[in-house]
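Objective 1b. Sequence-to-structure analysis of DNA 3'-5' helicase.
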Amino acid sequence: LITTYSMITHTQKRSWEAEQTMKWLQTQEWGIMVLDEVHTIPAKMFRRVLTIVQSHCKLGLTATLLREDDKIADLNFLIGPKLYEANWLELQSRGFIARVQCAEVWCPMTPEFYREYLCCKTSKKLLLYVMNPNKFRAT
């Protein structure tokens, strides 16, 4: 079975077929549950997957074991400890992932945008520098 976290944790009305599928899913005891993007599981809604779907073993996968909150540590008791971590530089040197190329591009504001930027509030400044038309010309 391959599904999404959102499909399993959906709380609104479902079609009859979807309800039957969910009832069947909840009666099964799976050997292994593979959780892609496992760093999202500590979120209140997505952690419900672990109680809705029963499995003997859980395997979490992610390329970014990071969260902005302090809930990444919850994975230790929700899924289990981290068993393997690949070094991205080694993966890159062996050709498994693309080489990263970073460039900083400076785009001065148009005179009209800059004039408005100098005299407006912070929230509008954000919009002005994000939507600077010169950014779209810098490709």
